[in-house]
Records
---
Amino acid sequence: MTKTFPKNFLWGAATSAPQTEGHSLLNGKSASTWDYWFEIAPEKFNENQGPKDTSNVYEMYRQDCQRMQDIGLNSLRTSISWTRLLPDGKNLNQEAVKFYRDYFTCMLDHGVKPIINLFHFDMPMWLMQKGGWESRKAVDAFAFYAKTAFEQFGDLVKMWTTFNEPMVHVECGYLYQFHYPAIVDFKKAVQVGYHTLMAHVCAVKAFRQTITDGQIGIILNISPAYARSDSPQDLAAKQAADLLNTQSFLDPAVKGEIPQELIDLVKLHELTPQVLPEDKALIKAYTVDFIGLNYYQPRRVKAPSQPLTPAKMPENLYEPYDWPEKKINPYRGWEIYPQAIYDVAIMMKEQYNNIPWYVSENGMGVADEERFLNADGMIEDDYRIEFMQDHLEYLYKGIQAGSNCFGYHSWTFVDCWSWLNGYRNRYGFYRVDLDNNFERSIKKSGLWFKEVAHNNGF
Ligand code: BG6
């Protein structure tokens, strides 16, 4: 039986400025924390691959827009680089304005709806030197940047998002050391998360004051927690994991409230952040129009083997559980569990007022894909096709059950640079040849996706 998706369903892909543009210290752009970190510690990055020359979209966007159209994408999410648009946080870089206007216009000319995100882990270095998200100053700086972007591009872009996966810069920067400043401090992590939330809220406020004919949302990573057992201890671990990782942003973004259980949990563990008296009303007033959810893997949890109050790390509240039956993507080390997409769809329907949402990232990173080159020079990535099809099956089921999902974006369009992992794992519909001027070539999954988009299903 054919599975037909809703009318006007978005079939597309997601990516980000720092991972694709290249020219990271050219054309007026100032350094982000990634440029700085690579400069001082290149050995941390896979094969010394830094942020400088990522995939060269800065020069190749016109051909890339044609490639989007060639494989039937009707939408693409990418981000604006804060440090390119406002290199010092205040003054517009006119070359950046021209670049983004041309890029977004070109997408529109090729039938591709731009969904534009404002922050994808790329904190300006000048702001990091003032404390980054630890400082309330970052909230105002971000709101100014957001307003500037809405003013400059609001005529072209009708769908905006404030942050990509805000929990990721919180945990990677302040707990697990995968992002600069790579410190380990639970209390600071909570403060950074809170300021990020307020930056999001203030950007939504700026949006409501600037744009009348568009929509704004936020992109969250979703790894729904599954407890090892129904024991009260394991269930408490699941609840803590969901509160900290999912409800922390999803509840205020959609319902305008931080859950009381989360407020109590951080208080119990002496992690309460500094807040301003007006924040509660701002959170209530500035909720979103839609949600993007990036889904890659579930979170299996069990009761902590070293519970601690106050907790020093999230592992004192919940611990990863190694589910013996799991299927794994060995390159990325992530569990493959498509069924979770159905659970997420039902969660959005039942717990989040059935707000419009879309799968804003889903995909499979694989290393050394040249192994799968066929005689015609095309990568036959059947594993990726299977991965996406399996997830789409469960998404379809969720939509049939009434969940208000309006699109599916794969990660990603052309192979891109991935933070400390450099170019190790590839995700694209198009291969990027690093030895040959970033030349792109279609993979089998790109042709498959074209069919799916064309048929609005499979
Ligand atoms: C998402 C991010 O978490 O996953 C992307 O939004 C990232 O920036 C993608 O590249 C894939 O993960 P990774 O770490 O394998 O690149």
---
Amino acid sequence: MKILFYMPHADAASWLYDFARVLPDAELREWQAGDTAPADFAIVWRPPRDMLAGRDDLRAIFNLGAGVDAILALEHERPGTLPRNAKLVRLEDTGMAPQMAEYVTHAVLRYMRRFDEYQMLQSARRWQELEAHPRETFTVGVLGLGVLGAHVAQAVAAFGMPVRGYSRSARQIDGVTTFAGEAQFDAFLDGVKVLVNLLPHTPDTGDVLNARTFSKLARGAYLINVARGGHLVEQDLLEALASGQLAAATLDVVREEPLPPDHLFWREPRITITPHISALTLREESVAQVAQKITALMRGETVSGVVDIGRGY
Ligand code: NAP
Ligand code: GLV
């Protein structure tokens, strides 16, 4: 069995070493430009088109992340790029769910306890008490109730704020009021104080964080975008902050990554930026999951986490 590996900026030698330990019979190699030699599986993150185009020998492509938008964009831009019969399999949790829960609860609590405002008061050397936000109306709405969104919604609910969740199909999650489908979108948004985005980036969800969406939230609401930059209409965020409809935002993802040095977001004190780190791909957990699925596919078994290309996630 031949396996190609491609992950820019990663320590490829360590990944290949770890895969070789759990798949001792595999011939593993790091893909280099021009390599068209046969392969059965590809393990990738943001692969270049040349790596996958015309590789009809591939049985599966394993994406070293939860979101497959970058790979599907290759197909969208030039149909026929993805190998015809290869399954596209994404990571499921592999330690990302607890990281995402830490990141989002940290941001929600920071806003609920007004630590962002206390930080600004400290910068101005002002000793001033602010009124507490009432917990019972500090409603948190989570867009996307998949592997990560469901875990995050439950983690936030443990702090006693009302939590709502929104998905494509109906979901039931203890402690979370759930909404499904476009017909329930406005009811989900109505009066939400913190909007958390954990949707996949698909043709249906791009630009979902826009002026209309913000207008349905409680006045002075907060935005936490930990999914993809393409979900956010950046100008609408700046205008919502200027008008007071939004009080602040935490962005782990932006349209152009890295965020250019002259981008307005760097200069807006109510925007907190992190460099796409809310849930990192962890090597040990990811190697174990991918290797287990390759072994299952080799035995002719089915695996979970297979992407529905038409749906986009
Ligand atoms: P997932 O398990 O596929 O869950 C996706 C959720 O979104 C599902 O609940 C799905 O609804 C819902 N959804 C999809 N399209 C929808 C639509 N048009 N309307 C309403 N709901 C829709 O994905 P995941 O593993 O939780 O990951 C979510 C995303 O997080 C990834 O795609 C990635 O972009 C992002 N992410 C970011 C980082 C980071 O470091 N910033 C790390 C990991 C992942 P159903 O339940 O009905 O299918
Ligand atoms: C990271 O952004 C991922 O999709 O895993």
